Amino acid sequence: MKAFNIIGKDIPRTDGKAKATGQAVYADDIKLPGMLHGKLLRSPLAHARIVNIDTSKAAALPGVRLVITGADLPKVTTGNWRLFPKTQDEYALAIDKVRYIGDEVAAVAATDPDIAEAAIELIEVEYEELPGVYDIESALKDDAPLLHDGYKTNISIDRKIEYGNPDKAFAESDYVREDTFTVQAQSHAYMEPCSCVSQADQEGRVTIWTSTQTPYIVQCLLASALNLRENDVRVIKPTVGGGFGGKMELRSWEVCSAFMAQKTGRPVKFTLTREEELMAGRRRHPMTIRSKIGFKKDGTIMAKDLHIYLDGGGYNAMGPTACFLAGNFGAMLYRYPNYRYLGEHVYTNKPPASAMRGFGAPQTLFAAETQMNMAAEDLGIDPIDLRLKNAQVTGDVLPGVATISSCGFIESLEEVRKMSNWDEIRKNPKPGQGIGIGCYSFISGGVFNWFNTQYNFSAAEVKVFEDGTAHLLTMAADIGQGVETVMTQILAEALGLQMGDIRITAADTAITPQADLGAWGSRLTLFNGNAVLDAANKIKKKLAGAVAAKFNLNSIFAIEFEGGRVFAKGKPDRGMSLGEAVAFVQKMQRGEPVVARGYYTPRDKGLVSPAFSFGAQVAEVNVDEETGQIQVKQMNTAHDCGTVINHMSVEGQLEGSIQMGLGYALSENFVMDGGKTLNTNFLDYKMPHAADMPPSNSVCIDTYEEEGPMGAKEAGEGLVSPTAPAIADAVHHATGFRCTDLPITPEKILKGLKKM
Amino acid sequence: MKAFNIIGKDIPRTDGKAKATGQAVYADDIKLPGMLHGKLLRSPLAHARIVNIDTSKAAALPGVRLVITGADLPKVTTGNWRLFPKTQDEYALAIDKVRYIGDEVAAVAATDPDIAEAAIELIEVEYEELPGVYDIESALKDDAPLLHDGYKTNISIDRKIEYGNPDKAFAESDYVREDTFTVQAQSHAYMEPCSCVSQADQEGRVTIWTSTQTPYIVQCLLASALNLRENDVRVIKPTVGGGFGGKMELRSWEVCSAFMAQKTGRPVKFTLTREEELMAGRRRHPMTIRSKIGFKKDGTIMAKDLHIYLDGGGYNAMGPTACFLAGNFGAMLYRYPNYRYLGEHVYTNKPPASAMRGFGAPQTLFAAETQMNMAAEDLGIDPIDLRLKNAQVTGDVLPGVATISSCGFIESLEEVRKMSNWDEIRKNPKPGQGIGIGCYSFISGGVFNWFNTQYNFSAAEVKVFEDGTAHLLTMAADIGQGVETVMTQILAEALGLQMGDIRITAADTAITPQADLGAWGSRLTLFNGNAVLDAANKIKKKLAGAVAAKFNLNSIFAIEFEGGRVFAKGKPDRGMSLGEAVAFVQKMQRGEPVVARGYYTPRDKGLVSPAFSFGAQVAEVNVDEETGQIQVKQMNTAHDCGTVINHMSVEGQLEGSIQMGLGYALSENFVMDGGKTLNTNFLDYKMPHAADMPPSNSVCIDTYEEEGPMGAKEAGEGLVSPTAPAIADAVHHATGFRCTDLPITPEKILKGLKKM
């Protein structure tokens, strides 16, 4: 494999300066002539029938241009799982019923945001309150009130996986244990609240600038919600301040802003407040996870039986995917020759849970990894040794689901053992001090076509110019994760150019090539990277032809692209600058510019993902047994993300993952009173801050993923999973208290220690 | 020829509602985070050496972020005639010398436009005043001060044409006359003053939103002015409020805003005031035109000898083209078997003249048409008969210059004679009432590659979608003339769709296909229209293939596109909707969208234009012999613009042309005191208003231009020429006074009448 010039280096973000100096334009920065400001009226009740809505006082308020309710909008439900329309269960504005506190009921557009806010207060809604269900248990009771018509229970979706013969294998096991784990909700807590601006043209076509991870999905679903044709909607993604899964669906304000722009003939902006985000926003699924696992005496895993309830809140949102993936993550990391999974997605009268960084993995892997640690203790095997014994390796097959085409898990385990001085510390416990381990595997994008797209999954257009520059157009959405930097690197490397030679235009559904399914499931590096390479290779073929023609080269010559030049391999004088080669091709084409499009769709790659990342993390903690306070002293991580495209970016992703994992493990939680979220600001909702971050070391395992662009695969999403089980294990090592119910609060520790 | 569904109809402008309701975003409407406001310091002297500039007080003013002078910018001159770098004579900010009152000397960027304005006042410039020249005559004197180094006179450019043997032909003529005509400057008077906003990224690359007719030219020249690569500049054309030739060059404020954005790291906006536009803006060339013409007794033209001086002002600007075209327009309309032209472009210490609607034709044709009318009088031939005798016809050749591939001139003359009741009115003169004629021919875009582009002259990208819509991307610049509507019509017609099925994105150099040379010389309908058709035909080939494959059609079947369907000609059941055909091709292409690019470059079309329009206009006037006041009672026009693409648009262009021609004939003029323009507002600069407009009738002659898209050619620019000579002729018919010096003011009439 040839050495890289750009790939693997510490390359600053292409949008770094713009963000740091305030030049970057986020949706809320957009100001258009005559623009109106929108606000939403949200339900104060968790479950109620809407008897009547009187908008007359609001509409009469000076400055108010339009007030709408669900009755004004086309009666269309939307949802991301377009392949299964039954799962699409949400109206933009509630019709007949509200199902959670914060459910959108009406919208106002006014000349000023304060007027819109005042008008919202003037809308009079008469509700008939209904009994609600606020957790999985009560939602599943026989006499539980049902949230949605057409269902006999509150279970909206289930998913089963089974291979081998689990029952037989359990019977043949030497050691079987069964545990129940519970995990809480968590906020995406992106720094930029959701925001959008819509404008309609004289044909009623809509352009929407929206803070989204998935421009193409918003385009299609918004068209459907407004009875427009797909291409009567243009979605432009401005700079986005984080998504983490929380911005990958069509949302109420997007529909309202587009509809109100059509009706008023003026642009309409909606920007959510932090309070709205926290009281009504999407969140990570709380789950109840029952896991049964069987081993041979020597630690060989025989079977696993996993039953997960997902607490979905009032609507499906991305619940089907979480339900689908949780079962797959349960089968990853270790060789489970016999496996059974049942996932059930349960409606409750709370804000809908949905996609969030890790997408089912942090929950499932907290359970799986904690249970591994519990089993290791019982079996008397070091938890790393137990993992090594069962670890998946390259070539392993999940029957009917996936093949693991590259795997650096064993190397990760060995590396993290070494770097954390595991054997030494683990064998010499000190009171109040502990070390623990958690591991993860993650997907590099999804294979299953739940959105039912007719396009390739990713696409890229590359133009090259005689001034030696290139332009990359793609619908891949940079939401802060750095995909524009990564795509620029891949193209620069492929064409032998520098970063500054590449311009990138991303994520405008009208002008970037159809289509890209969006930024979720860590898909973009692999999917869009492959599309970029496909386009680059078509360009290179043309430019190589120019060199071959100009220098009359034998057709077997290889042509190299390096240092801004195109030349015969080993004969650098038989070549020209890339710009000259472009000019040559352009002449040959009688003035046609040199352009190519590339595509990627995973084919014959099972149901889940074309490639999987792996990694292991060790946490060191101090626990104050008086107060139950946990101090995380050190995180050590070794992970396999294939070829590292941008070392600095991977480091940043790791830091961010640890921050999010730390919050999940220790402090973040929605405090609920029935259906009401009590902590709706960042004082009460406790995220770890910069000062809370532990020191961290990391190593990237050197692997090469054949299906990935230049050998790359997922980095930065899977890493959000190992932190909680590693900390929980370290707390157990320090105190003897094993926490199976996140977050691990001081109260739980004190209560747990008291029991021992 | 098949009947059209969309072409030739009264189709409302695609951007009409946005403009009428204030939704359209012009450059000055753009607001970006942290944006600075720029102002220019202009020279108060017409000709002076810059001894010293002290910007320290300005820079110290709170709120000022940057002050620059010519010394700060790269020392690069620019100009549109890139093929001849010697003609590129203008710095963005003056270096060493200023050459007209208003010449740009320094620029300020501040947090607020008022602060910028105040800072401008604080810049101290020490000038050494030089003697100036303010008209052609004094500029050409032997001892005239020279404006530019490297020239021996103030003549910067000349252009010669000669064919046949004019001297011999004059000797053989029965009647020869020689006249001198003078014409004044005129303002473009676009409603939107020039405005731009620039933003620079961390690589120093610039995005500029600018009110321009020529995004590609601005891109290339701005790159050159800042020592950037061509594609390090992205030009986005927002909605533009008129250009008329006045917005087709790179201008000082564009360079300053881009440079200051790079230096400050913040966006910088410049918007000119009307006063700046009128005191220093581009304008139509004043000319002195000496024309000698010879006839046989029967009225047959034998020869013409034309010598034109163009008063160019301080810099060349688009003077080379005006100089080039004036000579071509002198050879149009009539068969001149022997022809000689000498054009000389003269520097004077006034604001540079440049391109303006008609581009040399209104001046040349005022002279040519007035001289025809004078000759007709002397020869005792009706002026329409004299024209009919000599009129150019389809197939006529201008040796080495052009072939006239379609020509409806004779029909225009006959039509206008009929509709104006010419013979009746002309033969029965009434005191103070007159009828007069003027004619024109114009180009449909230019063939000569003065910009030295390496791309095709026009390009278009068409995407079609399975929802039955299409998207057209083009760099063709709509500046109010309606080209986006026309291109949408052409594509809709070609694909058998409706207007609302087409989305158009125009004129962003980064995302619309390379390249288009811009909106000037009435080029876009023909040039870009052909590119659109080329792309549409490629798309149609693919979709026709889908129908042929699906219905297993014999390959000789013709496939029709109509009513949103694609079907075998004569067998409408063997077909499908266009959207279904797209979906079929997309499946066949395994998810690749259906996209094609089309191009047009005129080849083997001489030096001037691939096609010429023709027309005749009759004016009826009343002249008050007491006051010299002229009242235009009626305009009758017949013209040949090939296939009419949009009848309403052609009517609008005609109305606008009459308005501009009326101002040129009667009232518009820059009142100068040496180099100083005295009328710098719309109270003092007298344009005709809506209330001044005469009733108008018009007929479009039915011709078909083989080189044009669906038979179309120029409409709306040539028509600005006949109005002045027609009115002058009518004034002569009413009063006996023949005016050869525009504008025809009451003072000139009274003076003229006194002489008789």
UniProtKB/TrEMBL annotation, chains A, B:
The keyword Oxidoreductase applies. Pfam families: Ald_Xan_dh_C (PF01315), MoCoBD_1 (PF02738), MoCoBD_2 (PF20256). It comes from the Bacteria. Residues 21-131 form the Aldehyde oxidase/xanthine dehydrogenase a/b hammerhead domain. Keywords: Molybdenum, Oxidoreductase. InterPro entries: Ald_Oxase/Xan_DH_a/b, Ald_Oxase/Xan_DH_a/b_sf, Ald_Oxase/xanthine_DH-like, AldOxase/xan_DH_MoCoBD1, AldOxase/xan_DH_MoCoBD2, AldOxase/xan_DH_Mopterin-bd_sf. SUPFAM superfamilies: CO dehydrogenase molybdoprotein N-domain-like, Molybdenum cofactor-binding domain. One of its GO terms (molecular function) is iron ion binding. Its cofactor is Mo-molybdopterin cytosine dinucleotide. This is Dehydrogenase.
